[in-house]
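=== RUN LOG ===
request id: a7f3
mode: sequence -> structure
chains: 1
length: 313
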Amino acid sequence: MPTLARRAWLAGLLLLAARAAPAQAPYPPAETDAGRPPLDRRYGYEEFAFLGWSKTCSAAIRHLRYPPSARGADPIWSRLGALSLEPDAERAQPRWLLSTGSPGTHWDPSRSEAASQVLAREGYGEPGFLETVRLGPAPALKDLAAVRTPATLDVAYRVAWPPKPHALSRVYYSALGNCALTVFERPGAPTDAYRYELVRLPVEARRRRAQSHLNAAVLLYRSENDLYGALEEARVAATMDPRLGEARYRHATLLAAHGRFEEALRELTEAVKLDARHGASAKKALEFEDIRKQPRFAEAIKPGRGTLPLDPR
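=== RESULT ===
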C-alpha cells in the first residue's frame, strides 16, 4: 500500500475508533477495569489485593468485605494471610493471620498492619508477573476465548475451578512461572465477589497465554479495527511476559498509533534490546511515521541501548 494511502487508512481507523468509543461498552478503551460495573457502595462491596510471593509456592493476599453505604467504614469481614501449596499437594492451605466476620471478632487496623509486617518479614513481597483478563462481551476470536478459560494454564491435576457467574479476571504468576494464583470475579457483587485458587503449572504456560493475548492484539488491530482492544491485549502480553520481544514491539506500535509517543519509544527500546530486528521493522512501520525523524527514535532502535530516560519536556 502506498505511503499516503497507508497514512489515510490509519487516520481513518483512528477517527472511526474515536467515534465508536462511546458505544464500545462491551469492549471498552484500553487500561480500564473492562466489564466491571462501577462500585455501588449502597449495597456493600469487596476488595481483593495480592501482596506478593514468597520463595516457595506461597502467595500473600488480603480480601475485605465492606457493609452497605461504606464510605470510610471498617470492613465487616476480612482475610489476610497466605495460601501455600506443598510440593505433593493439589489444594492450597490457607494461613490467616487476620480473620474477622464471625461472632466475637472485629476489624482492627493495628492488627491488620501487624499481620502485613509479619508477612513482609517472612519474605512475602515478590511481585512476579500479572496477567489481566478483560471481563464482559468480546469479539469472537479464538485467542480471546483461550485466555478467558483457566484450562489453557495446563494444570496437570484436576482443579475445581469456580463456576459461573465467576469469571477468570487475573492470574498472578510466580517469578519462576511454576505457580499461579488465579482470581475469579463476579463484578459488582456485594458478597462472594472473589474466589481464588493457587495452582502449580508448567513454566511454559505463561508464555503460551501471553502469545494468545498478542495474537488477539494483532487480530483486533488488523481485522476488527479495534485500536482500544488491540492496545489493551498488547499491554497485557508485554506486562505478563516482558521477555517476549514481539509483545514489547507490538505494544510500542500500538502506543504510537494512539499518539502516546513517549511510552512508545520506551517500549520500542526494550523490544530492540530483546531482538534487534524490531528496530529494522520500526523504520518501516506506519505507526512511527510522525516521530521517525526524531533523534530519540534513532536512539531507540539502536541495538544494545539501555532504557531511554524520560523526556525532560
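=== NOTES ===
The chain has nine helices and eight strands.
Residues 15-35, 308-313 have pLDDT under 50 and may be disordered.
=== END ===
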